[in-house]
Q: What sequence folds into this?
């Protein structure tokens, strides 16, 4: 592979102010959107897996990505000409509470690639070492969590869910200490680095931290940059307040559609903090995620959320709306009017409900028509799925093969029930 294979357009660092401190140590970073930082070199990088579909987004073929030189790039041991590594500064609300500065604690952006189609793809290494935003952490990642992120990112994309992409997983040849079972017994695990791709890795928290610090001018610069770069065509000139409101409406709509897709496939994000919400409406940060097996609207894969269940399956739209409220609060100084923001937040839920009900209709094989009210049917479906332990995915798969003339239709669905003996006569009638 030649170094000229990738063409970088590092607009983020070119257009926005950076941290003047060059040393890599933990600190608060004010008046800047990022800090330049180098990935930490590892002892023995070895490629574990890569996605050829994701590689093609960068105009790479299999021979190029499988080369030893590019494996070194994916591990953080080598930089290509044009790369300008940095970690970004953001804050966030975590489990409903303001957490202050967070930032890219174990993610390092290598740069933004322009492909032959004119698309911009930011390359980001997760697990490539400490940054000024790592706080007390080591900035590293282990193989098991890296494989989970790699597989889920690509699976979600092919399921039609808006998501960041995963290019590769590379082991480092080094061990990382982690408490896998959170029982106070950390043990060494194989270290790894994931390379993630996205048009943008900007989060709600990037705007929140600037608003929290009262840095309105930098907030305005970041919003203007984001609109110009990530929402092309939205800014047609005119009144800036109208542009900002149109942008916020677009963010609300993209977020609503993303969450509706989560619900469609039974995905639970698990940690919907505002710093894990993408400004361009992509699923980001695959931490304690999971898919619904037994249909339980109160289920969450996040064991640290077991008591509160803030981020449970059925709550995801409401949490997304709450997170958008925090973004609205952050950009309020640029708009100075609450009513239009409040109306757009209400519009979020209308968009979500419309998208979610349209997806449910598709899952049931229905063709929506004007004036049709499917809400009672959907409410009964939600209730029926909870009458006995029901595998959500298998239920809909079996339903898709159901013969409408079947005299005992429930029998065609039995594979979806973990304990078929739970299906009393009354439950069968409701099904």
A:
């Amino acid at each position: 592979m030649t170094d000229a294979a990738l063409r970088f357009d590092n607009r983020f660092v070119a257009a926005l102010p950076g941290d003047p401190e060059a040393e890599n140590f933990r600190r608060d970073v004010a008046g800047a959107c990022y800090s330049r930082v180098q990935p930490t070199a590892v002892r023995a990088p070895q490629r574990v897996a890569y996605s050829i579909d994701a590689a093609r987004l960068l105009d790479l073929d299999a021979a190029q990505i499988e080369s030893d030189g590019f494996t070194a790039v994916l591990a953080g041991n080598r930089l290509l000409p044009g790369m300008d590594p940095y970690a970004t500064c953001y804050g966030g609300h975590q489990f409903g509470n303001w957490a202050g500065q967070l930032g890219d604690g174990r993610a390092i952006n290598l740069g933004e690639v322009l492909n032959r189609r004119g698309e911009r793809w930011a390359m980001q290494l997760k697990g490539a070492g400490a940054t000024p935003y790592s706080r007390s952490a080591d900035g590293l990642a282990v193989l098991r969590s890296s494989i989970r992120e790699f597989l889920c990112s690509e699976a979600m994309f092919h399921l039609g869910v808006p998501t960041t992409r995963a290019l590769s997983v590379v082991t480092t040849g080094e061990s990382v200490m982690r408490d896998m079972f959170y029982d106070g017994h950390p043990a060494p695990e194989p270290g790894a680095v994931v390379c993630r791709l996205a048009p943008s890795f900007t989060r709600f928290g990037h705007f929140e931290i600037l608003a929290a610090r009262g840095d309105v001018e930098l907030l305005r610069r970041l919003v203007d940059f984001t609109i110009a770069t990530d929402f092309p065509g939205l800014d047609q000139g005119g009144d800036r307040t109208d542009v900002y409101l149109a942008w916020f409406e677009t963010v609300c709509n993209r977020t609503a559609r993303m969450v509706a897709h989560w619900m469609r496939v039974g995905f639970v994000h698990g940690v919907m903090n505002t710093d894990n919400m993408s400004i361009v409406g992509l699923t980001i940060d695959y931490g304690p995620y999971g898919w619904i097996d037994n249909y339980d609207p109160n289920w969450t894969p996040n064991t640290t959320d077991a008591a509160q269940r803030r981020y449970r399956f059925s709550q995801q739209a409401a949490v997304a709306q709450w997170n958008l409220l925090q973004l609205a609060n952050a950009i309020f100084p640029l708009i100075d009017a609450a009513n239009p923001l409040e109306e757009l937040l209400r519009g979020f839920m209308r968009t979500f409900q419309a998208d979610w009900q349209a997806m449910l209709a598709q899952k049931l094989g229905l063709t929506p028509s004007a004036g049709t009210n499917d809400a009672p049917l959907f409410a009964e479906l939600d209730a029926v799925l909870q009458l006995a332990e029901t595998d959500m995915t298998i239920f809909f798969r079996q339903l898709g093969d159901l013969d409408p003339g079947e005299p005992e239709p429930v029998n065609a669905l039995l594979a979806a029930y973990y304990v078929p003996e739970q299906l009393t006569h009354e439950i069968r009638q409701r099904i």
